[in-house]
Amino acid sequence: MGHSAEEETAIPFPALAIVPLDDRPCNCLFPRQLAAVGGLDVVMPPRETLGWFTRPGDCDAIAAWLGEAEAEGFVISLDMLCFGGLVASRAPDTLLADALRRLEAVRALRESRPDAAVFAFSTIMRLGRTVAESGDLEGHLLLRSYSELLDRVERLGEQDAAKELAEMERKLGPTALRDYLEARRRNHAVNQAAIRLVADGLIDYLVLSQEDAAPVGIHVPEQLALRAQIEEFRIGDRASVNPGADEVGLLLVARHCVLAGGSPVGISPDYAAERGAEVYPAFESQPLRQTLEASIAIAGARVCPPIEADAMLFVHTPVEAQPDIAEAPPPGQSPILSLQADSLADRIQAAAVAGRLAGVADVAYCNGADPELISALQRRKLLGKLHAFAAWNTAANTIGTVVSHLCMTATADRARAGASAEAGWQFVASRLVDDYGYQSAVRARAVEHARQMGADPFALGDASDELERFVSAELRPLARELLASFPVALSPGEEPPVRLSLPWRRLFEVEVDLSGNACQPETRQG
């Protein structure tokens, strides 16, 4: 049987087996990098079993690997185990009976490893669908609108939206709607089955993470039903429903390490603006503060005042709504955000002077770091003094990454295991190069270059190698500038030790690595 909350006090410092959500860097590379911060060994299934973009992973091979993995603890993506990954989970191809059969691998794991700590996570389906090429974008946006309208009409009783809903159904057509709703119903049934596995003691801790959504939508009744089931089974201390997706594996790796340390890590949030903590971030269904506190709890940490904290978490909050980084005005033309960035940088500097463990979650924008904040940190020579930093994709993705990094460092320090300073600064530096250098500065130029070439930014195809060279050339000067704050000795004219690639042959993400753990070219799929 699994561990109850009362029994879950301390576990041996574990070697972890991780079944990732998919093969992207955030799910395969980030866990290895953060595990290295605490000197933790991790193992994953063979790369070829994880699939690639729209090609599902090999669920049966992953289940077999799971049954043979030698580890003290497990972090399992149920989307990978049951469907072959995040993208595959959005398609109706897998039958419910097959998904539930694959879920039985968790039961077999518990029977063979009764004392192992088993943590699992599964997504609640996003409001749209996968955009595998530019032609998919319209259908994705229509499904998002349909999902929100359906909830407004059916749950909130806004009958004035019924006509618009009917028009949206007409535009989508019966096939697209059928496939979408079938996938949602199947995934919901799998999440319900996962909750029962927690109640039966087969999973020690479960996170049901809401992928890209909104305050209203078809996902809301699903969340309500899942929360009611968790309450019915009285397992609220072992299962949670929160926004996010790609960061959850990191948080569960951190949870293993925090539990191994025997006591929670104390984290003190410091919001750049208190009203910003109440903003509903883009793609999320609850206020920023609620998401941050939930992330801390998932990691096995606790929110506490600064005097009791092991780590400070500085949050660069949105001003009113959270826009995309593509909508950021030129530097110097957002006075409110500039003043906020300067104020937050002053507080970060005070923490650095006091020798505090400190991380920065930059969520002023989604999909990239705020140039005003980076400038404020550079002026104070603080980039190389940060113990954690992130500013990628959604607020939950960013916050979960920073919380995980702080927990790994604090736990290793407490245990006198000695957090790896090199692994720590490498991860911070790689986030700055990616989240600021690429996402905020280079990505828009890369998209324009792709269009000039006649390539689809969502599906580069044969143009991938050329775009990869373009991105590398554009990003290296910025990387050199950013790495000047870190202990990297570069001779004049020497190239920064940054490995860059476009792992899914699209421009939404890059793989940036300074540690030598990046995927080798021969393992990349196409």
What does it look like?
Helices cover 47% and strands 11% of the residues. With 526 residues, it is of the alpha/beta class. It folds into three domains: 16-130 and 183-261, 3-Layer(aba) Sandwich (Rossmann fold); 264-419, Rossmann fold; 434-526, no CATH class. Strand 5, helix 9 and strand 6 (239-243) form a beta-alpha-beta unit. Helix 10 (248-261) packs parallel to helix 14. It is globular. The two termini are 42 Å apart. The model is unreliable at 1-13 and 518-526 (pLDDT under 50).
> Are there runs of 5+ residues with pLDDT below 50, and where?
1-13, 518-526
Strand segment tally: 13
Task: Write down the overall geometry.
Answer: globular
- Examine the coordinates and then state which fold CATH places here, giving the name of the CATH topology of the largest domain: Rossmann fold
Structural class: alpha/beta
How much helicity do the residues have?
A: 40-55%
Can you count the helices?
16
Summary?
With 526 residues, this protein is of the alpha/beta class.
Write the layout of secondary structure elements.
Blueprint: E1 16-19, H1 25-37, E2 42-43, H2 59-68, E3 73-77, H3 78-83, H4 86-89, H5 96-112, E4 117-124, H6 137-154, H7 162-172, H8 174-199, E5 205-210, H9 219-232, E6 239-243, H10 248-261, E7 266-271, H11 288-298, E8 302-303, E9 311-316, H12 335-353, E10 358-362, H13 371-379, E11 388-390, H14 395-414, H15 421-453, H16 464-483, E12 499-501, E13 511-513
Parallel strand pairs: 1-2, 1-3, 3-4, 4-5, 5-6, 7-8, 7-9, 9-10, 10-11
Antiparallel strand pairs: 12-13
Helix pairs in contact: 1-10, 1-15, 2-5, 5-8, 6-7, 8-9, 10-14, 11-14, 12-13, 15-16
